[in-house]
Amino acid sequence: EPFYRTLLDLKRKNNALWNGAAGGAPVIVPVEDDSKVLVYVREKEGNKVLVLLNLSPESEDVVLNAKDLEGSYSNIFANSTTAIAAGTSIKLNAWDYVVLVL
Asked: Is the pTM above the cut of 0.85?
């Protein structure tokens, strides 16, 4: 229940996640060709949500090279801050996910 409550609260408060034209369109962030990590971002009016999903049973390191992702994000599930700069590497355990909000 806390997992879904956190996601629904984020969706309600962050207009990047609102439905249709009211929200930001999802944009796939390119990662290494052999990576099994899906990374996408949604942005609207200065609100940005960056999602990393490890779609494999093995741990994966993903390198974020997009300059437009730079910033100090809040990790909504870890209650911590993650600084993203060009070349930042994030390790995801098997089937792991990270939801970051700027």
From this structure: yes
